[in-house]
Structure formats: structure tokens, C-alpha cells
Amino acid sequence: MNWPHLAGLVALGAFHGINPAMGWLFAVGRGLQEGSRRALLAALPPIVVGHAASVAIVAALVAATRSAVASTLVAVAAGMLLVGFGMWRLLSRRHFRWVGMRLSQGQLAGWSFLVSSAHGAGLMLVPVLLAGPAPAVEGHGGHLAAAPAGALAGLAAAGVHTAAMVAVATGCALLVYEVVGVGVLRRAWFNLDRLWAGVLLVAGLVTLVDAAA
Amino acid sequence: MTRWTPDPSFYASPRDALGAPPEKLAYVAAFDRTATRPDAIAVLDVDPDSTDYGTVVGWTDLPNLGDELHHFGWNACSSALCPTAPHPHVERRYLIVPGLRSSRIHVLDTGPDPRRPTLVKVVEAKELADVAGYSRPHTVHCGPDGIYVSALGGAGGADGPGGIAVLDHDTFEVRGAWEADRGPQYLAYDFWWHLNHDVLVTSEWGTPSMVEDGIVGELLLGRKYGHALHFWDLRRRRHTQTVDLGDAYQMPLELRPAHDPAKTYGFVGVVVSVEDLSASIWVWHRDGERWAATRVIDIPAEPADPDALPDLLKPFGAVPPLVTDIALSVDDRFLYVSCWGTGELRQYDVRDPFHPVQTGSVRLGGIVRRTAHPARPDLPLSGGPQMVEVSRDGRRIYLTNSLYGAWDDQFYPEGVGAWMAKLDVDPETGGLAPDPRFFPHGDDFRGRRVHQTRLQGGDASSDSYCFR
Prior knowledge:
The structure holds two protein chains of two kinds.
Chain A: H1 3-18, H2 24-34, H3 37-68, H4 71-91, H5 105-118, H6 126-131, H7 143-180, H8 185-188, H9 192-212
Chain B: H1 14-17, E1 25-31, E2 38-45, E3 56-65, E4 73-74, E5 94-98, E6 105-109, E7 118-123, H2 125-132, E8 134-142, E9 147-154, E10 163-167, E11 174-177, E12 191-194, E13 199-202, H3 208-211, H4 217-221, E14 228-233, E15 238-244, E16 249-257, E17 266-273, E18 279-287, E19 290-299, E20 302-303, E21 318-319, E22 323-328, E23 334-339, E24 344-349, E25 357-363, E26 388-390, E27 396-400, H5 405-411, E28 420-425, E29 432-434, E30 449-455
């Protein structure tokens, strides 16, 4: 993991963390409903676990595949997937559908996993993951043997990303709960869905251009 | 198209919604009892600073005859901010307007010109029947995963069960019946929810055959109309409990849950008790893990000379209050109760929901009283306060006077006419009085009768909130 790589992971983590739809708003809702900051804080770990799982699956897959298969092929496939997903997010008016507010901690983690996956949170990390240094292949074990090590690197990347995400999400949740109040939502909630789709698209294009270079 | 910032009419909490700016337009369902002219949505100017204040400034006819417009609602509301699936960048823009008799559901776009809504889609009765198995669509609420529409009747010739259909948020196509397991529920009418508790509540009126040709005396005295509330698991779409109010309490209709999302109580009005023609208000509430309902207000019938009464009521020598609509202010402080029979709108302080205190009363119309509006003291009024809508800030109350075509004719045989009134409220002390400047009536509504009012930007019965 080099510095630009790390910076990219952290920046995307912050981007995911700041999005109210990714969970911190749910935590605020719980805090307000119970009238306690503890309820807010208790909701954050399962949300983080769900998000981390969603991202880690993609990261591990990309990293492992990249260790085993020609990286150009991975990049082209991932780039096309990203562009397609980004276009769909941009053009589709459908929003994530979910009914139910009273969730157990496990269900809350499941919700977070689904909402992150549906938004393509992990996919967004693909160009950063691909830009990172390939895992070192020792000796003559061949590419396939390197896959587990690659997956591990992917998990580490997901960990860094999630750490940034949780820091920002917790900050947002506490700021809204303690200081500014939910009234701020109706003024300050910029339509991140469009920006999100745009980032996915750009990420896909960058990946494709890099692969062609 | 989605917005860059949330729709400004969405509020995260009821407390925030209290600070909403006053509405400038009101939409009113207007229907032709003779079914020879189209029903319409009338648009009223409710901006006191406007020269057109209190007049009909827009009118959108529907394409067919005999729809009988009744209740309607918005495509989106403050629940779009709810945290499980937030989508606050949609617009509160489309009015979802069911025809209670025709079973068509109309979609009107208020975006291009709010004073002139345009029809953009008609969901035909067949689609509602084929996909959801329902007819006679009634209440509309913007739900967490679609637009929920209650319906009184079944489909394919079946009288029931009535239930709830879900419409797609975007295309307004019928997605299907909402219920996964309806348990013993058969009769339907109104519904609403406690969103943060995953609870949905429904009430009971009657099936189409029980209501469409007028109230049926034998059914009423036989206690066959609805008299129960149903509680549901909103998430799993399952019936969880029936709370029977007792079969003397016929027709629990409008449901008004507390707007405060942490609370689990609400009010329901019962039209008539067959024992003494009184009306009542009940509060539903938790009782341990179960639900219960407690009667908190009784409104007695008023004795009257039988000669002054319509045939239906002559044997009783009294006017029933007929509580046909109620409304709860967004701060859950005041409950407004329409007594359509006696011609009275009552205001109660319900900060303690179990001990309401009456704080105001306005008399208009009534079967015997015929109280005039201060703007036209010479004009005895037919009908009474019926649909009641409260502005988000709780300062203005809007009333219309028709109940339901066939029932209007029984209780007001010489016709209800059409009138709308606005009452001004002092939200600090309670109390309310008619605004003498606001009294559209008669020909203003082009021969139609007027039913539900919806206020531009939302009102006290249009939005649900997920934050305190």
C-alpha cells in the first residue's frame, strides 16, 4: 500500500461515510427515537460491519483475481462493469426499497450490507484497488498461489476504507444529533446519488484508460 | 427528474414541519352527484394577501363521468427522509386521485402549473382489480416502498375483502395487494401507520354493497357495519391483532396516529352508536405487548322535532352528531372533530390523549340547525363540517361539507349544496373562529359537491415523520 493508494481509499471511505443513505442517518434516527446517544452509537457498529463486508467481498475478489489473471483483463472487465453500473445508477429513478425500522443488530448489519451493495460501494473502490501495488509473488509458485495473499491485501484495503468511513459517519451522526439537528437535512442534503453515479462512471473510465495505457 | 436538494416541503420531524410556511393553494375534490358532468379537482387560492383569496382559481376536469372523487393524496411526502431507504430528492408533485365509485385512480401533475394540475395517467379499474384484486380505492398515503391505497371492495364481482393496494412510486402502476396474511380482516376503510414501530392500522366501514346505495338501516341496526380496528406488522405485511370496539360502535373511520414517531397512540372517530345515536372518539394505545382502544370522548345526539328530520331519522326524534372525520394537528396537541349531522366542528386539547379537554366549537350547517356562515348570515347551510384539514403550522382549518353522494341524499334530502370554510386557530390557547373572508360556496364549485382538501406542500394528514 503506497501513499496515493491509501489516500484514495481514505477519500472514498469519507465519501461513503458522509452519505446519509449509507447508515449514519439510521443511527441518528435510533438515537432520537430512544432519546439517547448510546442508542445512536450502538447502531453504528452493525452498520459499519455490513458496509465493510460489502466492500471487502469486492476488494478481495479484485485483489485475488488480479493476482491470478492478467491484470489488463481484470481492469477492462472491472472498468466496463463500473461504467455500466454507473450509467444504471445515473439513469434509473429507482431507489433502494426497504420497509422496517425495528431491526435487531444482526438485521441492521444485513440492511447495511444490502444498501452498500445496491449502491455499488465496493465497486467504486476498484480503480484504487487496481492502482495499488500488485502483491509480490515469491519464487516460482505461479500466479494461482498468490491469490490468497492478494485477497489479504484486498481485505486490508477494505479495512482502511472502512476505518475512514466509520470516522466520517460517526462524526456526521454526532454532529447532527448533538449540534445541528435533523432540520439541516432538508437544506444541506445534496443529491449524493447523482454524484455517486458520476463517481462510479469516472472510476470505470479511469480504469479502462489505465488498462489501455 | 430528481432534485439536487431535498424537496423543500419535506420535513424530518413534526417539530420542523410546524415551522412550514403557510400554504398558498388548496386542492379540493369536487364530484358531480348526477354523474352527467365530469368530477374535478378545484384549486383554491388560500393566500390572504392575494386578491383572489377564497376563490376557485383553477379547475381540472377528469376525462370520465361518475368517478365520485373522495379522498386523495401526494405521490411523496416527508417519509422520503426516513433513514432506511431515504430518497428525499423526489418531488412532492403528483396528486393521486382515486374515484371511489369508478375505481379509477388518476394521477395529476401539479409541477408545471400548480394552479392547473394536468392529468398524466389513469390507472383503470381493471388494472387495480387484476393486479391487486381490489376495487373502490379510498385513502392514499406515501409509503416507505410505494404508494399505499386502501380499497373498500374486492374484484371480479366480489364484495370483499377490502384491503390495501401498493402502487409503484415512479410509474404509478399497481404492484399488487399489500397483505401477505390478512387474518380475519374483511372490511376496510382508512389506514395509517406508526412507521418507526413497523405498525400499520386499518379501520372498517363496509363493502360496496353496504354503502353505495346509501346507509342501510337494517344493516346498521343489525350492527353489521364495521366496528373494529386491525393492527398489522408493516414489515411482514401480516395481521397481528383485531381490537373490537363493540358492535354498538358502528363505523370507526378516520385514523389519526400521533405524528411524533416515538409515540404509539392515535385517534379514531366512530360515526354512530346504535344504542343512543351518539358519536365517539377512541384512542388506540399499547397495553403491554398488545393493542387496546379506550373511548375518550362521547358526543350525544341532539333531540329534535321529528317533523324537522329526514325520513331516516324521524323514528328517533334526534339528530346524531355523525362524526365522519377527525384531524390531529402536527404537534399532536389539538384534535378536530367533525359532527356532520349536528353541524359542529369541535376542537379538543389532546396533549393528554386519555383526557381530552374541549377548547373550541364552531357551528355551521347541520340537519336541523342550518347555521349560516358569518360571511352570508342570510344563507342557511345544508350539510355540515365534514372533511377537516389542518395546516402544518396548526393555525388554519379547512372544512368541506359533503360526506358521500348517496349518504348526503339521505341525511340532507333537499341537497347539501357545496361550501367550504376556513377557521382561524389560536394555537397557544385553543379556540377557533370562521374567517369571514373565506367562504367559497354554491356556483363557485360549478354544481359539484366538495370532499377532501389537500394543502399545497402538505398538511396534517398527508405526511409521516421518522425523526423526533
